[in-house]
Amino acid sequence: MTDLTFLALATVTVASSILALEARDLVYGAAALGIAFLGMAGLFFLLDASYVAAFQIAVYIGAVVVLILFTVMLVGPQLGEPPLELKRLSLLAAILLSLLLGTAGAVSSASAFPGPDNCGSGCDLVGLSNALINQYGVQLEFLSLVLAAAVIGALTLAKTETKAE
Amino acid sequence: MGNPIIDLLTSTYFLEIAVFPGLLSIAILGALLGWMERKLTARVQLRVGPLYASPAGGILQMFADIIKLLFKELTIPDGADRFFFIMSPVTALIIGAALLGLIPFAPGIQIANIEVGLPVFLAIVTLSPTIVLLAGWSANSKFPFIGGLRALFQQTAYEIPLWLSTLGVVIVTGTLSLTGIIEYQQNSGWLIVPQLLGAFLFLVTSTAEMERLPFDLPEAESEIMMGWQAEYPGPLFMLAQGPAFVKLYAFSALFTTIYLGGYLGPAPIPPIVWFFLKTILIITLIMLFRSTFPRVRLDQLLRQGWTTLLTLSIANIIIAYFLVVGIPAI
């Protein structure tokens, strides 16, 4: 049952990711990206990480996809650029890369993540929160500084545009 | 061993999803809520409201309307994006129904009892602005697009205070599970007492999320003619109206669960009756907003959302912090 669900979710995720890149209509691309994120949230659910799944939906679909859609609609729903010439070559590269990554994952997972119970009692949400705040507090602050810098940069860009008008 | 298909059809899990508290009951209750809203609004305005569709005060009016809408012609405007135009109302209805799968209606009657029920509920809610925006865009018409944009602005602005207002409950109870929140209230009383500000904020922000008066700018029938639903033909219009009532039911059920003790209540009356009594009380309250308040302007709405409500919800978190830690002696 779990295998079937996994296969279905994985197929949906991969197919809609490809569609997100290849769709001629940008609105369809953005919607396909949303479905890909939804599929990833489903995969997180299967991994018993429902908290991560909830935030995957809230942040990536509730905020990111909505913003992309809004931007696309603001600039007008035009057709995307025509596909590149290197199509066959890039397909080959994609297959090679995914094979390489898959092999690397299979090789490393056997040694790096032995069995499902590798983190003991520290795997729960409380343990994760404690680790984030106590152990990785500084890193977390730096990450939020990066986000703040992005927001300030966006504000600056928006402001210069208004001046130029 | 019997037939596997019959086994599946009579299993508790399937019945919970298909009949109660799942799809069938959601459809019937949604239609009844439509009747209730029209009757209540009519009574407030000294009218009689629906009257003829059954002996009991026109209670079958919505079913009659549904049958009428189903037989209308399915016209799709020229230049509309057919895929999104048809899929948006359907998806919106699915999202609304999915919310109810997380609510504990009575001990043991819950489709999905997951450990992080509250954030998952709110995460599913965040899907709806995307759908409404796509619905408004796909109609390729002026008023639907304005309605879709308004829905996007409004729901994005009110999602953050909505999340933050429920955070107070999470801090006080120390759990993200909806069943856990009810268990906490069994020992310590209803959360609406210590979290009064949070409950008020939740009621206001969820009314805005449901696009109900006084926050029904995306529909605003007197300005933009039902907004994003303007171009929908009969059967699809019925589907587009459905999510409004399903979300009303779901949000009232969530309010009951996290602030009013859910199914808890004195013994002779069964828990499920308590649950529905409280939920219908909240639904009535939200419906009375409709007949009481005028519609706000978009700029007022956004300013209140991003300033007042956000500040108040952060204040509510501080209140929750002191409730847990205790007020320090100076």
Low-confidence parts of chain B: none
Q: Mind telling me the CATH superfamily name of the largest domain in chain A?
A: NADH-ubiquinone/plastoquinone oxidoreductase chain 6, subunit NuoJ
Please report the two chains with the greatest interface, counting residues with C-beta closer than 8 angstroms to the partner's C-beta: A-B, 20 and 24 residues
Largest sheet of chain A: none
Bulk shape of chain B: globular
Largest sheet of chain B: none
Features:
heterodimer, A: mainly alpha, 2 domains, globular, B: 330 residues, mainly alpha, 14 helices, 0% strand
Question: Can you walk through the features of this model?
Answer:
The complex is a heterodimer of chains A (165) and B (330). With 165 residues, chain A is an all-alpha fold. Chain A is 81% helix and 0% strand. The longest helix of chain A is centred in the last third of the chain and has 28 residues, at 137-164. Chain A is globular and about 40 Å long. With 330 residues, chain B is an all-alpha fold. Chain B has one domain. Chain B has helices at 4-10, 12-18, 23-44, 61-70, 82-100, 117-125, 128-138, 142-173, 178-188, 196-209, 221-224, 234-259, 271-292, 298-325. In chain B, α7 runs antiparallel to α8 (142-173), α8 runs antiparallel to α10 (196-209) and α12 (234-259) crosses α13. Chain A binds chain B through residues 27, 31, 34, 50-51, 53-55, 57-58, 61-63, 65-66, 69-70, 73, 77, 125, and chain B through 81, 84, 114-116, 119-120, 122-124, 126-127, 129-130, 133-134, 137, 145, 149, 152, 156, 159, 163, 176.
